[in-house]
Amino acid sequence: MKVKVISRSTDEFTRERSQDLQRVYHNYDPNLRPQEKAVEYVRALTAAKLEKIFARPFIGALDGHRDGISCMAKNPNYLKGFFSGSMDGDIRLWDIANRRTVCQYSGHQGAVRGLTVSTDGRILVSCGTDCTVKLWNVPVATLTDSDDSTDNSSEPLAVYVWKNSFWAVDHQWEGDLFATAGAQVDIWNHNRSQPINSFQWGTDTVISVRFNPAESNVLATTASDRSITLYDLRMSSPARKVIMRTKSNSISWNPMEPMNFTAANEDCNCYSYDSRKLDEAKCVHMGHESAVMDIDYSPTGREFVTGSYDRTIRIFQYNGGRSREIYHTKRMQRVFCVKFSCDASYVISGSDDTNLRLWKAKASEQLGVLHPREQRKHAYHEAVKNRYKHLPEIKRIVRHRHLPKPIYKAASLRRTMMEAERRKAERRKAHSAPGSIVTEPVRKRRIIKEVE
Amino acid sequence: MEQYNTNISENVLDFKRQKLKGQLPLREELYGKSAKAAAKVEKNLVHILWILPSSGRYMAVAGRKGHIAVVDMNNMNLVKEIQVREIVRDVVFLHNELFFAAAQKKYPYFYNRDGTELHCSKASSLYFCRSFKFENAQGRTDLMWVNPFNGVVSLGHSGGTVTMWKPTTSALLIKMLYHQGPVSALAFHPNGHLMATTGKECKIKIWDLRKYEVLQTLTGHAKTLDFSQKGLLAVGTGSFAQILGDFSGSHNYSRYMGNSMVKGYQIGKVSFRPYEDVLGIGHSMGWSGILVPRSSEPNFDSWVANPFETSKQRREKEVHSLLDKLLPETIMLNPSKIGTVREAKKKEKPTKQGREAAMEAAVEAIKGFVWKNKTKGRNKPSKKAKKKQELIAHARRPFLDQQLKEEQSLSKKKQKLFEEVELPASLRRFARKKPTA
Asked: Within this chain, do residues B306 and B216 fall inside the same structural domain, yes or no?
C-alpha cells in the first residue's frame, strides 16, 4: 500500500536563475488567515492615516496678473490652456502644465468681468465694465507648444460696444451664440456687432449666466434681485424664475444630469435645483463661512468646486450636504473664481491676491504614471477604507481637516447662532397654537417664491 | 543507569579491615539508590522544541540543561547552537526565525539567530510574556497558549481551571473548570473553535469554544498536546506518542496512529510541522520526527507563509507584518464582530401567551419533582401534597409578580398620557413639576 505524504522538492518551488520571477502560490482557505477582519481593519486604519500624510493638494501658484483675478475660462478643446482676466483689464492665457503665461492679450479698459471660449476652442470672448465685448483669437495648441516667447501684441478679432457694462458672458456648448449678462441678458452672434436677442425680467442687474450643456438653447442666470431665472432662446420671454432670500453669485449646470444646476448663494450655502421643479432645492450644500463667489462642476458631474469670500475652496459631492474637501493657504485671499479642469483631476482658483492657484482635486492622489502594482495598492487601500469607513476611529481620521483659526472660529460662531435660531423657532412653535407655525425644511426655507 | 553505577565492591575487595567490610553492603545500597536517582533526573531532562508556526521551516530546540539550537528543517542544517548553562524551561521563536526567546531559570532571555543575547526581561515575566503573546512556562500557571483564531491568551492553572485573557482589560474573559486535577497541557485547533485540554487526572477533553462545552472526553494521560493544520491531535505521554484523528467531521476523535519511542525515553513536547506531514517529538535523548500522513495543509499561500522564503521576501514580509500589527483592542473572543453593527439593546417583550406558556412549563417541571422519603412521621401524604402545592406556588410567583408590575406601570403610563393630552403644549413643562397629590 502506498501512503501519500507531502513531499516537495526545493527545485520545483524555487527559481532556477536570479532573473526568473519568484513563483507565487495561492490558497484562499480562511484557516490560514486568522483574524482576517482585524488585519483588514488595521490596514484600513493605516490607509486612512497614509491618506492624511499624503494629502498635499496645493501644486503651485501662477503669478503674473497685477490685480485680483475676476474671471476664468477653460478651453474645451485644449486641456492645458486656461484663460484668466483680472480687475485691471488684463487677459492671459496660461499653460497649466508648465505654469506660465503663453499669451497676454491687451484686454479691456476697466475690469474684465467675463471670459468664455467657443466650442471649437478657437475664439475667446471677453466682456468688461468698459461696455465692450471683445473676440480674441486663441493661438493653436501646436503653436503654443513650440513658441516660448509670450505674444503680447495680439489684437482682438472684433470689438462690440454696447449700452451698458457687462457682468458675465457664456458661450453655447453647441453652436456659435454667446450670452452676456448686465442690465439685461443679450444673445450675440460671433459676426454681428449687435445682440441678436435680448431678455429682461425686472430691472435689476444680471450677475451671471450659464448655458445648459445638453439643451443648447436653454440658459440660466442669477440676478441681483435675488432671483435665478431660466431662459429658452426659442421663446420671446424668460421661462421661469425663483426668488430666494439672498442673491446667488454664480450658477453651474451639472454636465451629467443636465436638468440639475447648483447656485452659489450669498448666504454661505449652495443650492442644487432641478430646473423642472424650482419650488424646492434638491440639496443644500453647507460649509462655507462667507458668501460663495463661484462654482464649477467637475466634468464627471459627481462633484463641484466652490470658491468663497472666506478665503477657502471647497469640493462637494453633487448630493452631499457637507464638503468633501477644504483647501486654503495662508497667502490665498478671497476667491473670486474657481474652475475644475477638463480631466476632473485639477482645480484652479483665482483670488484677490493676483494669483491663480493650481490644486489637485483629490488631495492625496499620486500624480504621474502609476505602475500597475501601485494602482492595485491604491485600489486596495480605497476598498478597505470604504469597507470600514463607518468605524469611529477611521471616520475621525478621514473627516478631520485642519482649518485656519479665523475660519474655525467663524464656523463655531455660526454653529452657535444657527443653534440659537433653531431653539428660538422651536420655542416659538411650542408656545403657539398647534399647527399655526409650520417648520419648513432647509431646502425650502430660503426660497421666497417661484414665478412662471 | 549503568553510567552512574560506580561499582565500589570491586575496588574495595582487598580491604582487609573487617569493620569496613561490614559497611560495604550498606554503602553499595546507598550508591545504587543515588545512581537510580541520577538516572531519573536524566530521564526528566527532556528536550523542548518549537517549530516556527508561520512557515514551519525552522525549529528551535532546547535541552533542559541549557542547550539551545536552531535548525533549518528544509535541509536539516544546524543554524546555531548555544549553551546557556542554566535550566531552560521553554523556547519560542518571535515573529520570524531571526529571533527567539528562552524561558530560563529565572528570567526570559531573548536571543537573535547568532546566539547573541539581546534582552533579558527582569520585569514580572508572566505579565511580560502575556503582553508579547507567546507561550512561556512560569510559576504556578505553567501553561500559556494563544488561540490562533482570535489572539486571546489562555492559561491553564494547577486548580484545573483554564482562564482566557485579552490585553485591553485586566479582568479575565472566561474562567472555566476544565479538570479535576491540574491542567497539564492545552492546544487549539487552527480554526479556533476546538480546544483540547488534559489534566493530571488522566482525562483528555475536547471543547467547543463557541458553546464552551465539552464535546468529547477521552481517557489517558498526556504530557503534551498539539493540533495539526488539518486538525489531527498529537498526544505525547511517557515514551508514547499517539495521534488522534477526526475523519468523520463530527468532532469524534479516535486513534489514528501511534508511535512508541525506545522504552525509557521521556517525551517533552510534540509539535506538528506546518505544510509538511511531520510530527516533531522532543524527548530525553534529543528529538525525532515521524511522518503523519494527512496532517498538514498541502498547499501553502506565498503571501501568508512560504516555506521556501528567500531573505529578500522575508525582509519585505517583516515590514508588512509590522504595518499590519494588530491593535490590542482587536483581540476579542469573536473577532468576526469587528466592523459589524452592535445589536440593538431593546429587548422584545414576551407576549401574554408566551408568558403563560413559560409559567405552565415551570409548573410542569415542578410536578415532575420526586419526593424523597423522609423519616417516620414526616412522610404523610398530606404533607407531600402540601409541599407540592407550595412548590407550584413558588414557581408561579415570579411570573405573577412580573405581570402585576407590568400592569401597574402600564396603567400609570396611561394616566400620564391622559394628563398630558389635556394640557396645551406651552403648559406641558409645568405639568411635570406639579406634585402628584
From this structure: yes
